[in-house]
Amino acid sequence: MSPAHAQELPDHLCVVLLSGLGDVVHGLPVINALRDAKPRMRVTWVAEPMPAQVLVGHPSVDRVIEYRRRDGFRGVRKLRADLRDAGPFDAAINFNVYFKSIWPTLLSRAPRRIGFDRARSFEGVWLVANEHLPPGPRAHTADMFLEFAESFGVAVETPEWRMCFSEMELQQQRTFFQRFSGKPVATVIPASATHKKDWLPSRWVDVVDGLKARGFQVVMAGGPGEREQSIGREIVAATTGVDWAMGDSVRKLAWIIGGSRLVVAPDTGPVHIARALGVPVVGIYGHTNPWRVGPWRAYENLWIDHYTEGRPDPANRTPRWNVMPGITSVEVLAKIDVAVREYGVATHRAALER
After folding, report:
1. pTM (2 decimals)?
2. Residue 181 φ/ψ, nearest 5 degrees
3. pLDDT value for 123
4. Which residue in 298, 306, 340, 301 sits closest to 323, CA to CA?
């Protein structure tokens, strides 16, 4: 980055990145790169309550403001007060393309408000930005986010997430995994926030039994939603020896993933936590395009991809209905075998490595 570009970086940056867990994880390499380019820059991040947990204690984020959209006008008033207390801001970048990002972008009152171009935005979001990224093709979400770093003249040659845990969390992690006596752990995320992305519980049972036969301790993890919990309970009831860890703590889910040797999941946010922590993912895709939403630049040889027809196209965001039921447990177990051979995920270990 040239000195001229360094001068263009703001002293105080407001980051508007709402949406789900995966999108917030995708934004971390951009913010890390901007902070590296200007270490004294302050960063305030506006996020929704659940994914905001990922940002707790992050070294590149000075303040996290939770925007509770479900509170309606009361939530907007609280957001305005929080932004006034955190500001003033020199610039705001809006990673989102939907209406929900309009209020935090406007209420930042930043003189520079940077967003996506009109063609890649929806619901008039481009109107609240006074600077726009150059028009470009749709791509993997993380690749599109990197364009914001480029807009400041910052190249992200080696993306870094820098997700971290407190000493107390690390101790909780050690205690959790010690009872498995070094046995390799495979964490299964059985469901996503959208039922159309989910797989069949009966086939998950086959996969869980196959993981155990390959020497893994299986941990069932995921979100607190009633449907997700119901699917998890159905799977656990049909097999034995599965450790139950589904709940409402994103922080706990993250350190469980961080201590695992393998994650098996459909299209869901924890996949991207695994990618950020360097944990191989067997991803199950049919409804959504893994080249747009899968683990970023990693583990392609572990994907079960029933979405792609012909040449991969990360710009394709059209959902494919009723495709997930066509994926067999045999296909998933075959990819688990690839992970065992090529990533060494079934190796027994005496102590937690991460």
Report:
1. 0.94
2. 55, 40
3. 87
4. 306
Count of residues in the chain:
354
Query: Which tokens in the block code for residue 135?
Result: 């028009």
Q: Cα(135)–Cα(306) distance, rounded to whole angstroms?
A: 30
Distance of CA 105 to the CA centre of its chain: 22
Question: What percent of the chain is helix, strand and coil (3-state, nearest 5)?
Answer: 45, 15, 40
Q: Over the range 227-260, which residues count as b (16 or more CB within 10 Å of their CB) and which as e?
A: ebbebbeebbeebeebbebbeeebebbbbbbbbb
Six token digits for residue 131 = 């600077």
Q: Where are the alpha helices (DSSP H) in the chain?
A: 3-8, 21-37, 49-52, 73-86, 102-107, 141-151, 167-178, 201-213, 226-237, 250-259, 270-276, 290-293, 329-343
8 A C-beta contact, residue 163 and residue 169:
no
pLDDT at residue 4 in the model:
33
pLDDT for 53 equals: 96
DSSP 31: H
Q: Each residue of 101-133: pLDDT tens digit?
A: 999 999 999 999 999 999 999 988 999 999 999
- Give the other-Cβ count within 10 Å of 85's Cβ: 10
Q: Are 114 and 94 in contact (CB under 8 A)?
A: yes
Given a cut of 80, whether residue 3 has pLDDT beyond it is no
CA–centroid distance for 48 within its chain:
13
Half-sphere exposure for 59 (CA within 13 Å, toward CB): 14
Q: Which of 48, 54, 58 is nearest to 25 (CA)?
A: 54
Confidence of residue 248 (pLDDT cuts 50, 70, 90): confident
Q: Residue holding tokens 């706990």?
A: 252
**Burial of residue 56 (number of CB atoms within 10 Å: 0-12, 13-18, 19+):** middle
Closest CA to 223 of 238, 245, 243, 240: 245
No. of helices (H) and no. of strands (E), the chain: 13, 12
Q: Match 């177990």 to its residue by tokens.
A: 333
State the average pLDDT over residues 16-37: 96
